[in-house]
Amino acid sequence: MKDTLKHRGMRNKLAEILSEKGIGDKQVLDAIKAIPRHLFLDSGFEAHAYQDKAFPIGADQTISQPYTVAFQTELLEVKPGSKILEIGTGSGYQTAILLHLRAKVFTIERQLELFKKTSIFFGKIGYRPKKIIFGDGYKGLAEEAPFDGIIVTAGAPEVPKPLMAQLRVGGRLVIPVGIDDQIMTLYIRKSAKEFEKKEFGSFRFVPLLEDKN
Ligand code: SAH
């Protein structure tokens, strides 16, 4: 698959739609315009890649809806050089958006099939996260902590404690919390012990699964 002018045109439209839906951060909209989402999908979905919809990516998982990606990215307030931990690599689309914003990205995926597929895809297309890890994101990534931002792209029944602990003071954790549907939740670490919590709208994600071993 290639990236063409037609695809670019569709991305500009998509960015317009997201802006109408309330995404205000120009950098985030520019990232949506830049990243060729159709390359992250199986070829059967190519024609639909720039609709504001989630699609299956294999292993019972989905690529998040562009609005959701933009909303979470906006809440994360990524700056060039920000150290970001992503839980749920999936297709790698959200990872690519973070890389476009010049974040240093560490990303964890627990499905071996997706981990392999996306690692190979990143190599081919030339995207360079700092690390792609096959493992359980519930535990975070203690050896690389603290992070400026942590983004969870699966629905968490509760907020994993290690993720709170691995946030830098001033850092932001963006996590959808809930079982059937999820409330988008932002935690800002105010000090070693204090977190400010803000809640946003309701979203629907595949579940964040904990590996109990
Ligand atoms: N950011 C992805 C969204 C994929 S859906 C994208 O843009 O495509 C959520 C992903 O989280 C799935 O790939 C799922 O396998 C993964 N996941 C679920 N529980 C996890 C866990 N405990 N640790 C790491 N990844 C997890």
TrEMBL record:
Annotated catalysed reactions: [protein]-L-isoaspartate + S-adenosyl-L-methionine = [protein]-L-isoaspartate alpha-methyl ester + S-adenosyl-L-homocysteine
EC number assigned by the record: 2.1.1.77
One Pfam family hit: PCMT
GO cellular component: cytoplasm
Main localisation: cytoplasm
Top enzyme class: transferase
Annotated localization: Cytoplasm
GO molecular function terms attached to this record: protein-L-isoaspartate (D-aspartate) O-methyltransferase activity
Classification via InterPro entries: PCMT, SAM-dependent_MTases_sf
Catalytic-site annotation from UniProt: 64
Gene Ontology terms describing biological process: methylation; protein repair
Gene3D superfamilies listed in its UniProt record: Vaccinia Virus protein VP39
Entry keyword set: Cytoplasm, Methyltransferase, S-adenosyl-L-methionine, Transferase
Similarity remark: Belongs to the methyltransferase superfamily. L-isoaspartyl/D-aspartyl protein methyltransferase family.
Chain's role: Catalyzes the methyl esterification of L-isoaspartyl residues in peptides and proteins that result from spontaneous decomposition of normal L-aspartyl and L-asparaginyl residues. It plays a role in the repair and/or degradation of damaged proteins.
Protein name according to UniProt: Protein-L-isoaspartate O-methyltransferase
Name of the encoding gene: pcm
